[in-house]
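tool=predict chain=A
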Amino acid sequence: MIPYRVIDADDPEPIVPWMNYGLIAVNFLVFFYELSLGAQGTGVLDNFLQGHSLVPCEYTNHCGVYPGTPNPFWVTLFISMFLHAGWVHILGNMLFLFVFGNHIERSMGHVRYLVFYLLCGLGANALEIATAATSTLPGLGASGAIAGVLAAYLVLYPRSRVGTLLFLGFFLLPARLPAWMFIVFWFVLQLIDGAVSLTSTSAGGVAYFAHVGGFITGLALVRLFSHPARVRHLRAYHAQPFR
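tool=predict ok
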């Protein structure tokens, strides 16, 4: 399922989600920097990603810190949130962030949203370290933080509808799905794939438990960071007839 927009009535007093736009811009700028280092497998880019990604065994003392890692090495907890492994990786993540993040920023305010986003990313990294303590594989990407944004959307706007493209064989079918259905289905997939990854060596390099960690963190923090008045305002427009 590929979301492409939240379907709601127009809000006559929109709050421009410039922090969300800024996060998307920073992710792309970092990715363009990665591209400037050359292709993967040529050495320079590989060394950069290994040194700046989250490597779980470095945090559990099961391995040494990779040469070239920033000092202190724990800054990779933050840097890794803005790294991506390829075009499909970053485009998928940024699409989800654009579709769901705008409303969450409007619900929290700019600064609160940024803090919430980063904390969800840290929660994602924490669970990845806990479940892959001896792993030497570099973890990177905004997926964990974005999972927290999805959790916030599930709590605040479960009955809104999401414009979605469904894959049916070789065909793409546009559909309008309730947000709760889309997000719960996505989360269940992460749990299933995460459980499979614990007993399989062919998980495709996806850090499913980072997604789960970010999601759980988002569920725990959303009420603390959201403004009830703003949420009520936005819910009023979600309740209007859809176009």
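The chain has one domain: 2-200+207-238. The mean pLDDT is 86.
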